[in-house]
Amino acid sequence: ENTWIKFSSFLISKFGSYIYIIIIKGKCPEDGWDESTIELFLHELAIMDSNNFLGNCGVGEREGRVASGLVARRHYRLIHGIGRSGDISAVQPKAAGSSLLNKLTNSVVLDIIKLAGVRTVTNCFVVPMATGMSLTLCFLTLRHKRPKAKYIIWPRIDQKSCFKSMITAGFEPVVIENVLEGDELRTDIEAVEAKIKALGAENILCVHSTTSCFAPRVPDRLEELAVICANYDIPHIVNNAYGVQSSKCMHLIQQGARVGRIDAFVQSLDKNFMVPVGGAIIAGFNESFVQEISKMYPGRASASPSLDVLITLLSLGASGYKQLLKERKEMFSYLSSELKKLADNHNERLLDTPHNPISLAMSLKNLDENNDVAVTQLGSMLFTRQVSGARVVPCGSVQTVNNYTFKGFMSHANNYPCAYLNAASAIGIKKQDVDVFLKRLDKCLKTSRKEAKKEKSKIQI
């Protein structure tokens, strides 16, 4: 604590109002910093670590030695990482700068989560693992609280990492199939409650719900699930992978915590903050439980994800990040209207999924009826034309994941009515991305229909 105060005072004296808002208020600065100021700040943090002391004599097994100067510069000479062997959030005495970096990052990220819509969140920390392994860490923490539990209730979402996160933690996923309402796939609340009664609440580790997802699936009914969890005294973990960028997803979490129970929610760094893959944020409404999760992490950890997101948020500032959220929402509306026009031109339909704020889906009925292979070929054609991120989902595909067989895999349902194509408006997307995608998709659809007609005529002959 004394070290924290000492170095905080030093930085405030050096950077003045720049650093005051972060250290004293624990907030992201409203306006972004220029790169030279950020680099100077990181340099000041680095010289607080013992490996950068003049005349330092290290005789331990981990002394921050780096063989390559390029590697040292890549990490701004912040080599020691974060945490200690027993707690990823603990202060490391010989790495005061790295420890301060960790605390500042967690404070700034907490402020951004509040800004994005979850106002009553009390604690969070950045963990150097992607979303799947971060969910596993949450489940392992709950194991000690519920030693008899062996099941996790999981409304189906066809994404492998969240499914495997439960398997890796040693639990048995209980898959709750979604219900079709119009074009949307929604949470079957009655089936969730029936399964809890059948298995017994004491045998259930938690409910594992989802916000951000691919259409036509939509975010789970978090408020209803949170009430069920509160009524049956069952923990509730939310996979909020790329939901920070959506005010609707964040509102669902806030409301769920208000009316019921949400123990922790996990979000990806790269999907929400445009940094390299490899980090996530674990956040919650009970400060002691979030601390328990951080203490479950074994050993020290890489500081790279914390460094990346801190640099990014200092560069953007709160106003810059809010502007990105605003632009993403505008691009979603633009993508939706333009994709609907294209769908109409090809006698297809933009599926009606108003509860999904990020992802859209367009039917591919004409291709599917002409030739089963034509649907998957469309995906290949888009990829070879440098369209990334679009998902083409055929009907009836089967996939086995850890001995569990999913029918209609990728469509979140055993028998979705039609094949479809997904496109998403994620943070950072530009109008040019949308325009180029639609132009290339239009050409690919025309080519696919021509080829499908040729195949059909050959079969008739």
UniProtKB/TrEMBL annotation:
Organism: Athene cunicularia
Record-listed N6-(pyridoxal phosphate)lysine modification sites: 271
Entry-linked Pfam families: SepSecS
Positions of the record's site feature: May act as a substrate filter by repelling compounds with a negatively charged alpha-carboxylate: 61
NCBIfam families linked to this entry: selenium_SpcS (TIGR03531)
Primary localisation category: cytoplasm
Protein name: O-phosphoseryl-tRNA(Sec) selenium transferase
Top EC category: transferase
Family: Belongs to the SepSecS family.
Gene: SEPSECS
